[in-house]
């Protein structure tokens, strides 16, 4: 089948680039029309590859693109999930080429969404086309691609709860994660959850002249900095009371197993241009990213930020603060702890508002399941090397939701790399990874169908 | 003469409003043409009121508007200084009316620059017109209005050094400060200096996904917050080594005298909507603003600041940090101490750049001089109450420069109020204050000329 892929790879890339050209940024209302265009584009591709009952399912937000092919109700069914919305692309000036004018350079596709997640979703569409040319599907397939993953998947849960029969399946398949390296295939089996907040600190009732008032009023920016700083202690532990109460503690054996993942701190530092690693004392880099909860400021702003100097004491200062969660923390628990704590530590003289943005639950997926083995075997076939199970730091909140609502486990068959700069300027996706994904996915279906039937 | 003022006050206000309509924002290059138009407008008004040798003196930056009237070389000469440039007006959305569409509401002129300093400069122009109608000038007058005060007066010192003969005078008169209240006239006799910096903290070489990297790299925003927080101790003392070395320590008597200024912490808090005052332990609000150096963040930014949530670890974080200085600190000394300290406290894993913006020296002007008495007498005549000498918190860096370059003391005959919201949205200037300034200034010239001659 490699030859069909080889013969059609130029067309596959062209189609993907056309899709990437549509700026489907869900976080910014001004792109709303583009988000809908991206959904329509995908729907048309679903129809081309023979999916049936294709529709844009309305939600209170962006529509979910759905299609299915039921070849035999007696066969197992795989439900594919992904998302067609993308992260905001700013700061635009740091992109070497415009984020929505995709280019292929050095065998990489550069565009916002190239990897996260349009590129990975499109592998599934083309894998279907390829299977059609090679004996048809080995099992039933349902595909559900949403448009609000980057803003918290607020309407997906509602849709899933309302459509349990329609979405009935045996396993969930998602390509929205990465692997260790192109010659080091791996499958994520643990994902951190998320609790994300915007905080607002208000001091004086208007901006003040720092000469006339400086030194005699609480400056909201200084106060916000102090509050943020107090959220970590000198060992980089998070100081929110009860924050660690439910963190699953791994045994020494489990930690040793985890640290067997190929990882070099030197290469890690080099790849991001830092002289040192950093983080919670007593844990390795792999552990800090995989099994420990963290707290980071994702954005901060206040006062005068233009050219030159303005001697102002701002009335308000803002920050976006998120925490990555691990089993058995829950987003709801941590959101509440953060909110209470942040309001409590506000010094007299300022008022604080905490607005939770969205959350997601941490998950660990089983490595002893039929589906995991089918995926590992598929990768071994196409990469020539057995993949390593890893625990990544990112969050795919809907994995926990699929488990609770549909009772289904998920396989995270992702082909991205840490260096793909997703959520950053110059996001890209390797042409190798895109094609290898299209090649690998059909093996998964065949392995899975054979194992379940057998 | 009050009747001439009464008869012409509508016209005076109309002329000022026309000038305020020109957005002479010096900090932002896109207003450069407007800055020049504001200078031309002023030059035309100088000619109308009979100033001679009127010119736009070129500098490496914005021109200085100059004019003079020498009625008799044997008489004393007053050099008037002011500025026609204004602070940036953003955030625009917080203005009740657009900053460059001046309106008069509740007897106040609302516009950027209404008080600081176009409104106060224009009082001097109209005071000249009034004296022309009332027996002419009692002494020689030179007027020098610059266009770069809000960005540090970088070219004024060069101009002054190159034109010492042209600027020869006996005293400097400036209206760019405030008084305690409309029924509590006062004259500023102490001004704090300024050291202003932009700092940049760089962590990883690109923005990173907080899920994949969070907890394992130094987050530049968190680091910047921690560095800023460390600049004050628990008593709100500034922690920069040697920072207080040269601070003039007042005697108990001097402090008691200073605290006799009418001030109510309750009214102060109420006026800015704060439940508490705040500041360096061991000092009153009046002392914190008047005689103690301070450090404030004037702006901060980094990471994602748009709508919604983006789970990013920013590569860079920025802040604008300024210190207000008191005698006998110097801007050069403190700029160097800050720079060294801020670079030294950067933790391993980030790099720090400190870019000084501009500075200014603290000054105390004498209260026993002929010029101060002439000003105090003038205010007593028009306000019916002897003004109180105060030590304000703002900075007029050029006062120290005039002393060192021209050997001249300055009288700060300002008519603004703390509540005028200069440097803030809804800057305004009382119609009362504008007219009272025009009425008071001629008395100063007459008192001063009489005292020097006598």
From TrEMBL, chains A, B:
Key words, A-Z: Hydrolase, Metal-binding, Protease
SUPFAM superfamilies in alphabetical order: Bacterial exopeptidase dimerisation domain, Zn-dependent exopeptidases
Domain Peptidase M20 dimerisation span(s) in chain numbering: 198-348
Superkingdom of the source species: Bacteria
GO molecular function terms noted in the UniProt entry: metal ion binding; peptidase activity
Entry annotated with the keyword Protease: yes
Keyword Hydrolase: yes
GO biological process: proteolysis
InterPro entries for this protein: Bact_exopeptidase_dim_dom (IPR036264), Cyt/Met_Dipeptidase (IPR051458), Peptidase_M20 (IPR002933), Peptidase_M20_dimer (IPR011650)
Entries under Gene3D superfamilies matching the protein: 3.30.70.360, Zn peptidases
Designated name of the protein: Dipeptidase
Lineage: Bacteria, Pseudomonadati, Bacteroidota, Cytophagia, Cytophagales
């Amino acid at each position: 089948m490699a030859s069909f892929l080889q013969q059609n790879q130029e067309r596959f890339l062209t189609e993907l680039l056309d899709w990437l050209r549509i700026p489907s940024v869900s976080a910014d209302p001004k792109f709303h029309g583009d988000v809908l265009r991206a959904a329509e584009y995908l729907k048309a591709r679903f129809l081309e590859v023979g999916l049936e009952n294709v529709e844009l399912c309305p939600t209170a937000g962006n529509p979910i693109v759905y299609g299915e092919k039921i070849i035999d109700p007696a066969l197992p069914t795989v439900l594919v999930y992904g998302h067609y919305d993308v992260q905001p692309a700013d700061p635009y000036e740091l992109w070497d080429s415009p984020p929505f004018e995709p280019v292929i350079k050095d065998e990489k596709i550069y565009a916002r969404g190239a990897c996260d997640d349009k590129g990975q979703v499109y592998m599934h569409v083309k894998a279907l086309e390829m299977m059609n040319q090679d004996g048809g599907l080995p099992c039933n397939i349902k595909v559900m691609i949403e448009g609000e993953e980057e803003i918290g998947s607020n309407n997906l849960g509602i849709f899933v709860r309302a459509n349990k029969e329609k979405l009935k399946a045996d396993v969930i398949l998602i390509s929205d994660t990465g692997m260790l390296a192109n010659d080091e295939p791996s499958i994520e089996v643990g994902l951190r959850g998320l609790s994300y907040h915007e905080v607002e600190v208000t001091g004086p009732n208007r901006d003040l002249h720092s000469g006339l008032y400086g030194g005699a009023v609480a400056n909201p920016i200084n106060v916000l900095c102090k509050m943020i700083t107090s959220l970590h202690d000198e060992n980089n532990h998070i100081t929110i009371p009860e924050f660690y109460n439910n963190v699953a503690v791994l045994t020494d054996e489990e930690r040793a197993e985890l640290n067997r993942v190929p990882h070099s701190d030197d290469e890690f530092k080099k790849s991001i241009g830092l002289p040192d690693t950093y983080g919670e004392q007593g844990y390795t880099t792999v552990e800090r990213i995989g099994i420990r909860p963290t707290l980071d400021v994702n954005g901060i702003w206040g006062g005068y930020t233009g050219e030159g100097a303005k001697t102002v004491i701002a009335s308000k200062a803002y920050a976006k603060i998120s925490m990555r969660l691990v089993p058995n923390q829950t987003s709801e628990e941590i959101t509440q702890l953060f909110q209470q704590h942040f309001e409590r530590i506000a010094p007299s003289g300022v008022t604080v508002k905490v607005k939770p943005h969205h959350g997601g639950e941490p998950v660990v997926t089983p490595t002893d399941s039929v589906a995991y083995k089918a995926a590992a075997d598929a990768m071994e076939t196409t990469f020539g090397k057995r993949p390593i199970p890893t625990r990544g730091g990112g969050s795919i909140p809907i994995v926990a939701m699929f488990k609770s609502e549909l009772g289904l486990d998920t396989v995270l068959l992702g082909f991205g790399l840490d260096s793909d700069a997703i959520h950053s300027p110059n996001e890209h996706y390797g042409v190798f990874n895109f094609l290898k994904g299209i090649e690998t996915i059909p093996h998964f279906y065949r392995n899975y169908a054979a194992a379940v039937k057998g």
